[in-house]
Amino acid sequence: MSWILLFFAGLFEIGWAIGLKYTAGFSKPLPTVLTVVSMVISLALLGLALKTLPVGTAYAVWTGIGTVGTALLGIWLLGEPATAIRLGCIALIVCGIIGLKLAA
């Protein structure tokens, strides 16, 4: 169950990271509220997952999910470059996440 909570915590981290772009410096009310709500949910789920998972593993997986998702959505939604080296590095992060899950 903790891994499921951690997965959803990572998804909400993606939500608030991308949401920050749409808040325009916290000047747009709706994106700001949605971003803050995503932050709270993400941290709450991470906290629940930490009841049984090691902090180093959980934090690395949480940030890894957030990093990969945010980078991919940046490419897809925001027109950021999708170079081979960038995609390769994202793949390495995914390998790290899988490795941490297998080692836990």
Report on this model:
The chain crosses the membrane at residues 33-50, 57-78, 84-103. Pfam families: Multi_Drug_Res. The protein is mainly alpha-helical. The protein has one domain (2-103). It has 4 helices and no strands. Helix 1 (2-22) crosses helix 3.
Helix-strand layout with pairing:
Layout: H1 2-22, H2 29-49, H3 55-78, H4 84-103
Helix pairs in contact: 1-2, 1-3, 3-4
Please report the number of helical segments.
4
Tally of discrete structural domains: 1
Shape: flat
Q: Overall mean pLDDT score?
A: 96
Cα separation of the termini: 14 Å
Largest sheet, described in full? none
Count of DSSP E strands?
A: 0
Q: Which runs of at least 5 residues are low in confidence (pLDDT < 50)? A: none
- Rg to the nearest angstrom? 14 Å
Our estimate of the beta-strand percent is under 5%
Q: Structural class from helices and strands?
A: mainly alpha
The share of residues in helices is over 70%
The run of helices and strands is HHHH
List keywords for this structure.
4 helices, 104 residues, 83% helix, 0% strand, mainly alpha, EmrE-like
Write a short abstract of this structure.
The protein has 104 residues and is mainly alpha-helical. It has four helices and no strands. The protein has one domain (2-103).
